[in-house]
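Lecture 7, part B: from sequences to assemblies.

Below are the input chains for today's worked example.
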Amino acid sequence: MCGFVGIIGLKNASRHVATALQAIQHRGQDSAGIGTKKGNHFRLYKDLGLVHTIFAEDDLKRLEGSCALGHVRYPTMGSASKEDAQPFYSRWPGIIMAHNGNIMNFEEMKKYLLDQSNYLSSRCDIEPVLYLLSSEIMKGNGKPKASYTVEDVLRGMAETYKVAKGAYSIVGIMNIEGEDTLFVARDAYGIRPAMWGRKGDAYMVASESVCMDVMDFDTVGSVAPGEVIFFRPGKEPLRESIDYKGKRPCIFEYIYFARPDSRINDDDVYKVRLKLGELLAEEWKERRGYELDVVMPIPDTARPSTITFSEKVGVPVREGFIKNRYSGRTFIMPHQGARKSALRLKLNPIDAEVRGRRILLIDDSIVRGNTLKQIVSTLEYKKPKEIHLAIYSPPVIHPCFYGIDMSTRNELIAYQMMKELGLDGESFDGENLEKLEERMAKELGVDSLTFLSVGRLNRVFGKERCAACFDGDYPVPVPEDVKQCIIRDRILQRGEKPEDDAGDGE
Ligand code: SF4
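Predicted structure of the full complex, as structure tokens:
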């Protein structure tokens, strides 16, 4: 997962971008970069690390201009190296670009470009998209021009969309019709988020609306699926739809990834999490209903849902853990080893709330299960009477090929347990869900485990959404060879041998 910000119409735009990027640092902690355009000069600076450690005063001074974009990255394609950090720059026709998401057919695009002697300098999946878009824009009427038109870019974008398969929101800056222009584009199903806002004559685009909040911009709304929007200071945005296929936003953004104070698509993430907590309470009362002393969120994501859960079941909420605010977010660390050691440091249980009590822990989701196993074992050390666990999403049993780092099926604990039990199916309800919960509870070391059912999930999100990791319904088809390429890339990046995990697609 990654995050981006683009600003046009503010003096020293790179400084504003650097500040706004820190509001979405949770979307990627491996590297960050900022690109700017002033007159005919493009500038780019990127490095490994967190935003505040990368950009010193001198760097931001050199990143001149009132048009800038920035990116925070954690890899779901390519490595966590500096070469793969975004944004990327194409000298012809002069574009700086970044994205959030996954271009699934990276290898195919790379080969296509190589056949035209167009070499890539990284394994980052936005690079071939940028070069393809550049060459499509320049095809125009044959001759290279000093400045291209909106029509040139729209035609180039439409051609690029036909080739680049996956889920992605793109941000770019370039000279269009003699003017500095910021543009944003979203995939045909709107799987990855993209929001835009304004302040006076200036515009901002970002992965989450919290970027607008912290910079005092008004959030206007989201970029529609398949839409491209062009922004120039003081002028109305130019909006064009080039490839609308339906609304299928990623629900994992609401469940876990986005900040609760953000709006994505047309929803407040916070409100969605409150609703999920209510429905989880229904699920609990219907299928468990055990006596409890306290409910506790696993910080921080589960907090809103725990509040509504507690209200519905009439059991008090307590803070069970103190979070070390100086440690990183474990899920988005690229290696399992780094994730494990970071977690022990991150959460410490409060003895007074845990000892001798019947506790229900609430969490957003279970992906690999390592985090939860360790949380439960640190909690047991404090001698609670019972530990129950409730999750406000269904079991994750399918990989994600759209930009969340869980693209190999064998890494998913629910899938491992499902295989062990000999269970089959795209999602679970009823007796099979109970069997899976029982087995996973044992594995995680808790007295009971309760997932939100897919049926209840649908009451929140309807059917116009991507919930493929829960129900296997992928909006963008993922051909088997593409799946295997992505799986191989992720396994190699984790430093494992491909044969250890081969054939773990759907
Ligand atoms: S598969 Fe899951 S994580 Fe991936 S885009 Fe769909 S809902 Fe989001």
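Note for the exam: The CA atoms of residues 105 and 144 lie 28 Å apart. Keep this in mind when comparing with the next example.
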